[in-house]
Amino acid sequence: MTASLEEVAYKLAAGGKGLLAADESASTIKKRFDAIGVESTFENRRDYREMLFRSEAMTQYISGVILFDETIRQKAQDGTPLVSLIEAAGSIPGIKVDLGAQPQPGCPGETITEGLDGLAGRFKEYYDLGARFAKWRAVIDIGQHIPSYTSILANAQALARYAALAQAAGIVPIVEPEVLMDGDHDIDRCYDVTEWVLKEVFQQLFYGRVKLEGMVLKPNMVIAGRKAQKQASVEEVAAKTVRCLKNCVPSAVPSVAFLSGGQSDEEATAHLDAMIRGGGLPWNLTFSYGRALQAAPQKAWSGKPENIVAGQAAFTHRSRMNYLAALGQWTPESEQQKAA
Ligand code: 13P
Fold first, then answer.
1. In DSSP terms, which residues pair with 18 in a beta bridge?
2. Which keywords has UniProt assigned to this entry (predicted)?
């Protein structure tokens, strides 16, 4: 039986499990591999991702994996499709479908995410390849005169068109409007911009006739910019993020899965844990981390076959920490527990 959009959207954030964002584009994965001295070849990318998908984390802590176009078509060393490894672990395969953020004409310093043309056909192919959910990322930067409403509106409209096309294809859309944490702005500026963006996104989802019960929101946390003089405490990030989401995200949305956005591994975990401990949330909150789940396994693996077990242990440990956080059961001491 095919699971409904509602069932898949709910399952992605249920029971403390969360998502692995392994959908780095060719240029992004090259950056990550450069940092560990590994050449970004077809085989190395395959070996790295196969290592993750065969780890214990997949059966216990990871509800779904966001893949890149190359990976959803790739086979493991023994010929098994990587998608089958994910399914065999009881996890759901998903696919990044946007084609990246491009400079937006008339809006200096801002971008518009591309990839709508031909998307209905691509969804059909991805469904046949096993994808049951998808991701589209809009990027909003904070600067002196940005963001502009022109850019927020264009990105929200694109997210809504993408989400409607996904649902028409039987695929759950992850709607990701990312407000970057690159600047020197304080947490309250991030709050204001995130609120503005989320209000517009849900307005456009309504106009686009997107079924909120069959989608997942992937937001940034409300957090001070990386270069800000004053960084906010864990409690402040948690409280302001929850307040912002409660003001913007209808309770019909079943699942909210955060991006990590450049936070350290442990910060991303601590922030999620603090939000859950606060209680009283109308949606299931979890993680959909890229960097905060993969930095440790990338380092432990470093491209060496003899490090595969260590890489898998590092990935399982980070996944378990975030699973505990999504249940509100993580403590700094949990970090000392060895991966099972
Ligand atoms: P990060 O957790 O590294 O921000 O990546 C998540 C993601 O999918 C961004 O689009």
1. 62
2. Glycolysis, Lyase
Name the amino acid, one letter, at 201.
V
- Catalytic residue annotation: 176, 218
pLDDT tens, position by position, 310-329: 999 999 999 999 999 999 99
Cis link prior to 108 (omega < 30° from 0)?
no
Over residues 30-62, the pLDDT tens digits come to: 999 999 999 999 999 999 999 999 999 999 999
Q: Which amino acid is at 246?
A: K
Cβ of 64 closer than 6 Å to ligand 1, yes or no, is no
* Residue count (the chain): 340
Residue 246 vs residues 142, 199, 200, 282: alpha-carbon distances, Å: 22, 11, 15, 8
Instruction: Give me ligand 1 centre to Cα 141, in Å.
Output: 15
Instruction: Write out 21-60 in H/E/C secondary structure.
Output: EECCCHHHHHHHHHHCCCCCCHHHHHHHHHHHHCCCHHHH
Three-class DSSP category at 129: coil
What the block records as the tokens of 326 is 């999504």
pLDDT digits (tens, 9 = 90+) for 97-148: 999 999 999 999 999 999 999 999 999 999 999 999 999 999 999 999 999 9
- Choosing from 289, 293, 298, 322 the residue with most ligand 1 atoms within 8 A of its CB, the one to mutate for a pocket test is 289
